[in-house]
Write a structure and sequence with these properties.
alpha+beta; 8 helices; two-stranded antiparallel sheet; 2 domains; 3-stranded antiparallel β-sheet
Length: about 230
Amino acid sequence: MRRPAPILAVAAVLLLGGCHQGDRPGEVRAPLAGVGFPPDAAAATAQLAGLAVGWGRNWETYKRENFGRYWSDETDAVGGRNGCDTRDDVLRRDLDELREGDRNPCVVVSGVLHDPYTGKRLPYSYRRASQIQTDHVVALGAAWRAGAYAWTAQRRLEYANDLDVLLAVDKQTNYDKGSKTADKWQPPRQEYRCEYARRYTGIKAKYGLSVTPPEKLALQRMLAACPQ
């Protein structure tokens, strides 16, 4: 028996939108949301001007566990409650030449990352050690010092698992970045610094995080250098 045309049309739209069939019959996972940062340097500069400025606080009390011990799908952040692990969400969004699991479409079997920080081409295989890590663009330690120390545990868990905050990147470069702020670390690949500054600023604004004076100056300079 043929389905009515409207149902077929809706199904086609969902498939084109990148949805995945859920684990339960009839369940459809929502598509991964796009990154949430200002659309251009001018918008980011205006957003940056509205951020609170102050020196980091409570740095000595930071622990990774303050943001949850593990990746969690149990948040209302972007990508939350879709039935997939946060890291798999990031890989599915950021990798090219993507191959997903046959039994579990959440799992990324293989793909290629064109690392935004370095420009490296990094292959990924589910069954092999990877040179890819998931980076919090505004690091957890930096977020803690900028105001996250005052959040609830659930708010911190949401931040740690928000796809707008996360990027798949080169592992060694992520180690080098650590919890440094924008005045102490910038992507080695200069062509990405404009987008990095926009994304970084957008995250700070989204979560109401402050910036230090040197951090704000560094972001202003990166944004000023963006192509017009």
